[in-house]
Amino acid sequence: xxxxxxxxxxxxxxxxxxxxxxxxxxxxxxxxxxxxxxxxxxxxxxxxxxxxxxxxxxxxxxxxxxxxxxxxxxxxxxxxxxxxxxxxxxxxxxxxxxxxxxxxxxxxxxxxxxxxxxxxxxxxxxxxxxxxxxxxxxxxxxxxxxxxxxxxxxxxxxxxxxxxxxxxxxxxxxxxxxxxxxxxxxxxxxxxxxxxxxxxxxxxxxxxxxxxxxxxxxxxxxxxxxxxxx
Length: 230
Description:
The longest helix is centred in the N-terminal third of the chain and has 19 residues, at 12-30. The protein has 230 residues and is an alpha/beta fold. The protein is globular. It is 53% helix and 13% strand. It starts with a strand and ends with a helix.
């Protein structure tokens, strides 16, 4: 079994879910008392969130590069960054280490292709929805049509992530708002919707909507299981 390196803490709520999903996946695959070989580097999210607000992505990248190099030195065979938004600095991390980096958008795109989805809605932070580092991969590298919520809806989605979900707050009215946005994306032609923030799965589940959902936390975690056991 390979050792999985996790860069977490952004937020720790979703990192805890990564840990559980990966261990569940390994236990289901191997049975008995098996669990995953994991090294976790969990950062303090508050300074990174402030750097995001300032647009200081190089400062944020430096923190995550140091985390990645520490995981590599500690014996990780490959890396996962347990957040969608900070994949904005994925190239900096990839270039700073000598072990594979498993990109969350690429894993999501592979899951969409497996379901023959060509037009997809995207929910995430404003950074993920509005900047090209994420949608560009889906559109350019995988030929997908990516549909986004309206400006006002994007602001709501972003606010709920930072003000509620990252703090472990799950509110019924926010769930209802997200479901309305998902339904609107479906009416616009989305064959499915990417939950492109690792906390959104805490709020919205597949049983809440008939629209196919692609939870990036689950997809990314089970990609790690597959690679660890390959």
